């Protein structure tokens, strides 16, 4: 999806919804009283799927594109734990999906890479798969495109049409920090080429990685860290589209040094806080110390930074466990013209789980609605749309697992999204999107 939607006027009206939200610098304080009275979300617009897989609104349909256990065209089995993903267009018009697999460790009998010759680490079986689809969403070919990594959670699409896949690992018994090789890196995947051996982008940092988003104007790579004591990072490459050629890793610091923790030091919704960046002296440490180095220099804590997307007006990212209720926040970072510093603002904080609980991966549709994947402990995980007017609507719900990897086809008509596990699978959802938006709450 070409992410060029202008969201400067994302929020323009006040509605009753149970969250506080502002984007593009426009404040919206939503009334929480009604939501607090009844903590049960209204999913009445979703029709129960007789197959028990995916509840959708009327006139919407889904198609299972690929799932764990199937045999791919390269002879390998589709891995489980489908996670971050994005959509590309081939020169012949084919739709190309690159999808992460968050394969962790089996402590007693760990799986090795199915292609050790092309593996970064032959003792690790995580990585990415690539799926080519025709215009009717039939699979034309399907193959491994990255192997020998571990816990490939999220990542991001680059302006030069590659996929950055990130390892979400940490220290501790069974956490994957060290296998046959060191882990905790980002890897670059070409969606249009077969499996190749990939080397880690070490200068981008070694930490509990989650998502990346690249500012196409400056070439700066922004990064989130899925850790309760994580930080928000940027990587300034020496050459904009050549990340392997090194660069500088930095972490965000508030100019107001009293703000050290973005949940414990509550931020005012919509207020722009001046911030600066501190340089990480050792981006590739032996132990998991990148965030410690950052905090020693005054960097702030962002609680479980996850999904992220870049726009012309700033970088938006989710903190899955952020906020007083610990069920989600959204922030927006706006760089100054010289990119030396900038401002950050809290644009969303969930007050209860009646609307949204634990936002994870995010994307946009053609109208600039934020499409949010939930990763919560409720009976159902939902896909939620949030309009520029601050209204929300439910796109889908499933009983199995978290949603992940939401992304749209280039024409905006098909939403591709993953159900993470039990088994992991990729769905294509289609329907009257405009009509669904008109029914928003």
3D structure, described in words:
By secondary structure, this protein is mainly β. The chain has a domain at 75-200. It has 3 helices and 27 strands. It has helices at residues 33-37, 290-296, 433-438, and strands at residues 19-21, 46-47, 56-57, 61-67, 82-89, 95-101, 126-133, 139-149, 152-157, 163-167, 186-189, 209-214, 221-225, 232-237, 247-254, 273-279, 305-311, 314-319, 329-335, 342-350, 359-364, 370-374, 381-386, 392-398, 403-408, 415-419, 425-430. Strands 1, 12, 13, 14, 15, 16, 17, 18, 19 and 20 form a 10-stranded antiparallel β-sheet that branches. Strands 4-27-26-25 form a 4-stranded antiparallel β-sheet, with no helix packed on it. It has a 4-stranded antiparallel β-sheet with strand order 5-6-7-8, with no helix packed on it. A hairpin with a 6-residue loop joins strand 12 and strand 13. The model is unreliable at 1-38 (pLDDT under 50).
Summary?
The protein has 441 residues and is mostly beta strands. Helix content is 4%, strand content 37%. It has a domain at 75-200.
Layout of helices and strands, plus pairs?
Blueprint lengths: L18 E3 L11 H5 L8 E2 L8 E2 L3 E7 L14 E8 L5 E7 L24 E8 L5 E11 L2 E6 L5 E5 L18 E4 L19 E6 L6 E5 L6 E6 L9 E8 L18 E7 L10 H7 L8 E7 L2 E6 L9 E7 L6 E9 L8 E6 L5 E5 L6 E6 L5 E7 L4 E6 L6 E5 L5 E6 L2 H6 L3
Antiparallel strand pairs: 1-20, 2-3, 4-27, 5-6, 6-7, 7-8, 9-10, 10-11, 12-13, 13-14, 14-15, 15-16, 16-20, 17-18, 18-19, 19-20, 21-22, 22-23, 23-24, 25-26, 26-27
Q: Notable features of this structure?
A:
single chain, about 450 residues, mainly beta, about 5% helix
